[in-house]
Amino acid sequence: MITEVGSKRLSLPRKFFSHWDITSRCNYKCRYCTYENRDEGFYDYGHKLKIIHFYECLYAYFDVDLILFGGEPTLDPDFLKVVERLDTSLYPLQIFTNLSQPISWFKELYKKQRYIRFIASYHYSMCDPKEFMNKVKFLLDHFYEVYVKIMWDSKYKAIIKEVYTMFEPLRVDYSDFVLSIDRIWHEDQRFNKFDMQWYKEEQRKNQRLQTYYKVDNGIKYSTSFNEIKLECDGIANYEGMECDCGTKNLIVCSNGDVHHCLTFRKNHFKPLFNIINDRYTDYLYLLDKNIICPHKNCYSEVAVPKRKP
Known about the structure:
There is one protein chain. The protein is α/β, with parallel strands linked by helices. It has a single domain, classed as Aldolase class I (TIM Barrel). It is 29% helix and 23% strand. The chain is built from 10 helices and 15 strands. The strands form 2 sheets. The chain has a 9-stranded mixed beta sheet, sandwiched between helices. Strands 9-8-1-15-10-14 form a 6-stranded antiparallel beta sheet. Helix 4 links the parallel strand 5 and strand 6. The radius of gyration is 19 Å and the shape is globular. It starts with a strand and ends with a strand.
């Protein structure tokens, strides 16, 4: 049984993490993706400017670590204007992307903002590995940090292992490169004990794991809530645990809805408020205390701390 989940990234007192789901549109159709509204239209820049103003207000209360999320956020036609406007004085701006934009696009991004940490997800069925590698190298040569997350689809497990080994030399060549692997089950092809032995050995190589969780026999380290679930044989019940989402995390949806975390949005909970339609300064008191988690599973990209009360 899990008694606590923690994150090194959220250990500082004023640290506050937020996803801005700038668009739900995505140009990939990965079979394992459960994301909704992948064909959503784009909101105009005035709409997004109101959300930027909300973050500027939030900066007065917290040290905000912001990630631009999607869908595929770089598809938004105002993306470069948004990046140029955002504050990166405390933390690098984070962008979660599939790197489908050409290198010429990233050159334009470099002119707007350089203090950027990329979380680049690699999807074998959607992307050529050599092209992806070339883009990763360009980003490493020009921006702050690149974290590559290989989606290990069990249907193509042998090929994806080879792709993973292609990236390993970058750990030696670049100090600002992080590599991890997330398992994706396929009903026609399962991971066997040899796959799991290899996976665990690779996890031990990753000295920059930010997530830990406590169980009866000690502390373990992982990459994500998804991996924790798999490591616990598909059972990781967080319902009833005290969660720091109340004081250290927010998700802002593309339409301006605000939730404590991605799981509230995915499970269709009523939003805390809407940035576009409500006077959001009236709702900041909602960030004064932790919440009791109502969810069995958690889909947050960052392991927001939770503990048994």
